[in-house]
Amino acid sequence: MSGPGRRQEESIYNLLDDAPLDPLRVTPVQNTRPAQDPRAVTHIEKNNPQRLASHQNSSQMSHFLNPEQGIRDQMTRHGIQPRNHSRDNRAAIREASAKNHFMKKNDDEAAQQANKPRRLPGGPPLGRPRAASAREAGGRDFVRENASEVVIPASKGAHALRKESASEEPAQKHGNFGKVPVYLQDRKMQMAELEAERRAALEDADVPPGMKVLTEPERLQMVQQLAETKAQVETELQKLPFTVETPSQIKRKQGLEDRLKEVEDALRVFSRKRVLVRK
């Protein structure tokens, strides 16, 4: 419940009107709070700091919310303009560059003045140096004379040398000129025979008993005979009809094919470098 009615019900005066207090029934309330020492109160008042002014409180809050960012920020807040070191460095670099350019220009001018030819007092004006002429002393051409003294004797000497070489008689050639001497040919044949004997001895060393190594002429002759036989058998096969039907034709074709296979196997054997045959 709210409003004037509620405040009226809770008023202490209404309570007094409804039920007057009995002095005999009222119990006094004792004060349990200890008494304060005046000296202690004075000490507390001295230790408590006084309340700061409003402008000091705002300054502290501003520093708390926006702290200083280095010495340059601190100088700016105190109204001092910090020094611009970057600008000063650029200015110093420009000044040093201009100074070096000026010194280099002076050095180049001094070098040009030192290399410049000087004109002697009363002398002819300086101009482009003129190449020395071959005809200066009495109209003589010393260059041509020196060349003739060196080149002409050399050419005469070479011509005389060729003439002497041509006048010499050619050497007489004997009958065996350009041929290998006979003793060298004999020596070469002896060495070839010895090498053949050595190889034959090595081959005979591992030949099984009852066998012999076929000589090279015999092997070549056998290869030639086998090649001719193979050609004959192939010719006989080509003469057969395309379709073999009769028993005699089939038998003949089979015999020719077997013969061709035997010849090819023998030809493969005798084509080797070393062939063993029975004695």
TrEMBL record:
Domain Enkurin, first and last residues per copy: 186-278
Subcellular location: Cell projection, Cilium; Cytoplasm, Cytoskeleton
InterPro entries: Enkurin_dom, Enkurin_domain-protein
Entry keywords, A to Z: Cell projection, Cytoplasm, Cytoskeleton
Family matches, as Pfam families: Enkurin
Record flagged with keyword Transmembrane: no
Region described as Disordered: spans on this chain: 1-67, 98-144
Comp. bias intervals (Basic and acidic residues): 1-10, 98-108
Signal peptide: none
Composition-biased stretches (Polar residues): 49-63
Domain of life (superkingdom): Eukaryota
Cellular component GO terms held in the UniProt record: cilium; cytoplasmic microtubule
Name this polypeptide is given: Enkurin domain-containing protein
Species: Cymbomonas tetramitiformis
